[in-house]
Design goal:
Elements (H helix, E strand, L loop, with lengths): L19 H15 L18 H12 L5 H6 L2 H11 L7 H10 L6 H29 L6 H22 L21 H17 L18 H15 L6 H10 L9 H8 L6 H29 L5 H26 L13 H8 L15
Helix pairs in contact: 1-2, 1-5, 1-6, 2-4, 6-7, 6-12, 7-12, 7-13, 8-9, 8-12, 9-10, 10-11, 12-13
């Protein structure tokens, strides 16, 4: 093997990343360079699993070449030269001295399967981090035409990554992740959310018949505690079949202790007396915001797991699945809200006149406000 002098020949490890995975990759590659037959004990590992590009190129080269005869390999460097030549096609900075360095730093070549498992574990961590970052970025993207379906598609992709990790690292007895839950991020569109919540409360007060059909909306979906409490007042009144108007909602709010110096009666009456559009429209807007906010919180939680080096692959799987469970309930409610309501149509042989006569005389009711265009 050529040993041409190169002042930068050791630039691959003079400043190694401050993470153990770098040394694990070195140990694995050193084991395979010293005892190429150890590759038979390293299954399921791919070049992309290596964090360092030069290491990925070396592993790809080792896999692509037939293993040499052990006796001949101990006598000459022919096979090492071939590995270096192939690896240099992807990593031009590789040198013969670095390959020798890898062989020297390998503690025990027979431990290659254990080293490979460690490399695979860190690769799983990076894959999960990448998937959850895609989810978080999608949930923050206000320019998307269909933000919730797009975010939920990212959730499905994230779940697939978790399932893949679970398949490669079977469950075992162990503790749950101990990573602290990150604090919730600030809501950039807090003012817009408050406006939509006020519009919902006003239109729902004007059209209480819609409230019972909106069981998919819960107080937890609201960004303001007062608005969540007023929604509870509305749902309580409608389920008791009590009269609903701004005054009755105000009285219910008083019974629930919602009136404070910051929520005076006159202000609440003004809030509840300005309906615009339909309750369903504003309810879906609020629920959409809740789905995306929950997706962001789940993403932050799982990313915190991946950033904690003490979290094992098993803990990543368990912790991530528990975090995703928080998203399942709000996702189900969104699906109910987004599903078209069933319509009752007359039988095909029945004319409109017949249906009208059977329905009885028309009732005089206030016209329902036109639904706001989505």
């Amino acid at each position: 093997m050529s040993h041409a002098p190169d002042p930068d020949e050791d630039n691959l490890d003079t400043t190694p990343p401050p993470k153990p995975e770098f040394y694990v990759e070195q140990a694995l590659l050193g084991a395979l360079l010293l005892e190429p037959q150890q590759l038979d004990n390293v299954t399921g590992l791919v070049p992309d699993a290596f964090h360092t590009p030069a290491h990925a190129a070396l592993f790809a080269a080792i896999r692509s070449l037939p293993a040499p005869d052990p006796a001949q390999h101990a006598k000459n460097t022919k096979w090492l030269n071939e590995v270096l030549t192939v690896a240099r096609e992807q990593a031009h900075g590789l040198t013969a001295s670095y390959l020798h360095r890898l062989i020297q730093v390998c503690p025990w070549p027979r431990h290659a399967p254990a080293y490979a498992r460690m490399v695979e574990a860190e690769h799983s961590r990076r894959l999960l981090r990448s998937a959850v970052q895609h989810l978080t970025q999608t949930a923050l993207d206000t320019s998307l035409p269909h933000p919730v379906p797009t975010a939920l598609a990212e959730v499905d992709s994230l779940a697939a990554v978790i399932d893949d990790i679970a398949a490669r690292f079977p469950p075992h007895a162990g503790s749950l992740p101990r990573t602290p839950t990150p604090p919730p991020g600030s809501t950039q569109d807090d003012g817009e959310a408050a406006d939509e919540e006020r519009l919902l409360l006003a239109t729902a007060t004007a059209h209480p018949g819609s409230v019972e059909q909106m069981r998919w909306l819960t107080p937890d979906d609201f960004t303001h505690r007062l608005h969540a409490g007023l929604w509870q007042c509305l749902t309580a009144l409608t389920r008791r079949s009590a009269p609903v108007d701004p005054v009755t909602v105000l009285w219910e709010a008083q019974q629930r202790g919602l009136l404070t110096p910051h929520a005076e009666p006159a202000e609440l009456l003004d809030l509840l007396g300005a309906p615009v559009g339909s309750p369903e429209h504003w309810g879906e807007r609020i629920l959409q915001r809740s789905v995306l906010a929950t997706a962001r919180r789940v993403g932050q939680r799982i990313e915190a797991f991946t950033n904690d080096p003490t979290t094992t692959p098993y803990q990543l799987v368990v912790g991530s699945r528990r975090a995703l469970a928080d998203l399942s309930a709000v996702r189900t409610r969104w699906q109910h809200a987004a599903s078209p309501a069933p319509t009752n149509r007359p039988a095909p042989a029945e004319t409109r006149a017949t249906a009208a006569s059977r329905a009885g005389p028309p009732q005089t009711t206030a016209p329902r406000a036109a639904r706001v265009a989505r």
